[in-house]
Please model this.
Amino acid sequence: MMTINSIQDEIIDEFSMVDDWLDRYTMLIDYGKDLPPFPAELRTPQNLIDGCQSQVWFTAELRDGCVFYRADSDALLVKGIVALLLRVLSGQPAKQIVDADLYFIERIGLKEHLSPTRSNGLNAMLHQMRLYALALSAKS
Model:
């Protein structure tokens, strides 16, 4: 299993090959297209993330001590951001998710290229992912 940091380093490498931000946005949208389909029955109000401008749904389950997320968004760019977050955090041990320093967001320039409302949404998604990890690890 790859560590959270090794996955982040991989993402930083991928983004470093593309200088133009329009091309980076296209990359993000392409990542979003690779997300597995999100079942309609999970698109419920309790799975919606508060604080996101777009609609973003998240679920999580604990398997073999690791947290696995499923998520989707109705906005293409946000769906790409969701796909990156899942790539980094899904399948990792709960404690590592809670303690993770997600430096890739800063290093690929994502934070500075998001509108304030999208940035708030990103923080809301990260907060919810950590809450899921805490709750699931407390149950086990």
